[in-house]
Amino acid sequence: MIRIALVLLLLFSNCVAQTNTKAPTPAALDQRLTAFVSSFDDLDWQRFRPFFADDATVFHPAAPNLKRTDSRESFEQAWLGVFERIRKNSRKSAPPYMQLQPKDLRIQYLDKDVALVTFHLDDGEVFGRRTMVWQRQAGEWRIVHIHASNFNER
User: Fold this and answer.
1) Strand, coil or helix: 67
2) Please, are residues 86 and 43 in contact by the beta-carbon 8 Å criterion?
3) Please, what is the Cα angle at 81 between 124 and 35, to 5 degrees?
4) Which tens digits make up the pLDDT trace of 94-153?
5) Domains of the chain from N-terminus onward
6) What CA–CA distances, in Å, run from 93 to 48, 82, 124, 140?
7) I need a labelling partner for 65 at 20 to 30 A (CA). Which of 9, 106, 130, 150 fits?
8) pLDDT tens profile 31-70
9) Could you check whether the bond before residue 64 is cis, i.e. omega within 30 degrees of 0?
10) Alpha-carbon distances, residue 126 vs 4, 16, 27, 62 (angstroms)
C-alpha cells in the first residue's frame, strides 16, 4: 500500500513539474510586443506580418475598414492600405514613419498560452484604445485578434 502511494505521489509530482515548466515568461511577450511596435513604426511588412496568426482577425479603428477582417485576404488588404495611408500622411521618406508609445500597458495571462494586452495611444489629437489577444503557437507568441478604437473627443 505504501509503495502504491509513493508511486502515485511521484507520478503526480512529475505531472505538476512538467506543467509548471511551460508557464509563460513575461519577458518573452514583452520583447515580442516591443518588436511588433517597432515593425509597425517602420511600416516594415516583412517584419510586421509574422507577428500575426494566419487566421488573425482585426477591428480597425477607422474607415475604410469598418468591418472585422476575418480572412487572410481581407486582413492583408486592410493592413497594406493602412501602411500606405500612414506612409503618405507622415510625409517622411524613410522609417520610422510613426513613433507609437503604448501607455498604461497591461498584460494579463489568461492561461499559459493566451494573453490579453491592453494599452492607450495619445498623440495629442486622437486618443486610441487597443486590445490585443496574443496566443503562443508552436512556441512563438502571435496576435490572434486586435480591437482598435480612436476618439477625437475627450
Assistant:
1) coil
2) yes
3) 65
4) 999 999 999 999 999 999 999 999 999 998 899 999 999 999 999 999 999 999 999 987
5) 25-151 (3.10.450.50)
6) 19, 17, 23, 32
7) 106
8) 999 999 999 999 999 999 999 999 999 999 999 999 999 9
9) yes
10) 65, 47, 30, 12
